[in-house]
Amino acid sequence: MTIGIIGSGAIGAAFARNIVRAGLEATIANSRGPASLEALVRDLGPGIKAGTREEAAAADIVFVAVNWTKLPEAMAGLPDWNGRIVIDANNAIESPLFRPVELHGRASSEVFAELVPGARVVKAFNHLQAQTLAGDPRSEGGRRVLFYSGDDAPAKAEVAALIERLGFFGIDLGSLAGGGRLAQFPGGALPVHNLVKFG
Prior knowledge:
By secondary structure, the chain is of the alpha/beta class.
């Protein structure tokens, strides 16, 4: 299983730290090109290499965490997704002011899914703050909870296995529209809550 990360901001870097901690490998990319990621890759350590958007997008599982207003540009022109899994870790807010984007009643993941036609989208890794997500998921005597949702059961199973491999405790919220709405920020009931599963 290969993993790509599109977006090198706080959430993308936090996910990458979990990849390294679990002994996995990934290719990380941003809009500015691999050379701009040299310092981050050195900081993240072995297992993470810098690549182009196209290289990251060619992985079996592609993690996307990009500022909402930049998502259309970030996803534009990439090759056919051809049934590969895309993890939507985005929230519909405009940085740096954290103003909510008007989605006209739709879940943010439904809007995101239109940017990656042919992909199997799973919403995950978006409800925790970056510093919490970057920390050891087992650091409080249990396992930190991560919610996920999607419409493709096999894709969700693969993401659930990755969540488990990274040391988190995954909870399936159901469909992309229903579960995604619960976990999205702003508006969802679950974001920012740092829940830990004991036992």
